[in-house]
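BUG: 3D viewer hangs when loading the predicted structure for this chain

Environment: internal workstation, default settings.
Expected: structure renders.
Actual: progress bar stalls at 90%.

Input used:
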Amino acid sequence: MNQLPILMNTDMVVATLDGRKTVTRRTQGLEVINDEPSVWDFGGFETDPVLDNEDGGTTKLKGYYAYFISEELELTKHIKVNCGKPGDLLYVRETYAKYSHEVDGDYHYKADGERIGILLVQDYQEKELLSAYRPSIHMPKSVARIWLQVKKLRLERLLNISPDQAIKEGISSIGKNYLDLTLYRDYSKPSSKIAFGHMYPRASFKTLWESINGQDSWIKNPWVWVMDFEVLSTKGIGEINLEELTNSPMTNDQSPNSPINQSPKK
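Structure tokens produced before the viewer hung:
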């Protein structure tokens, strides 16, 4: 059971804390496949795969891999799963600030809002009682308060996302329109007012994806890791019984070789 970092922006941290976000899509490690995503088919997952060499020998890879097949290129590729397999723990890296020794507390997390009690974060920073916000990528493991466990892992093309999955990605509903239909936030806009809402969850998720991954990242339709997760703690790893978790039936039943985590070849 590995312990791996995962970056989340402030909106997605809030969605996770609210229980709205239970799945995440990532492209890390898939760059070689996503250079030409349309020529590859996903073949499945393998643990410690043995590959044939051109000289007739074999090479054994260590770890958990996804493999892809390209009939057009007459190639296969094994990509090591570095985002987390079922049973692994993920600690969320989020934007944070550190209190000075004069304050009863260690850290303030941006997702908790711009107000600390009756004062604003800016007030604390002006009085040098709180540091400037630090980027999430620099958050140490020891400071992480949100811990997740990967429940399922699969691979799919980004544009295959369903409306239900888009909602589970944590997009915000911002009210209803004149037809009494739910509107979802447009993340390309600076405001979440109803005027900037989408009736379709996939359209909202598209704006979220592009706000994180850049313009045109949606239309490229990359292969993505899709991880379903459960929140184990929002108060740090000390709230988790690691021994009990390691021996739990869930971890064993959801092992990498379990059929529930296999995606059939196209």
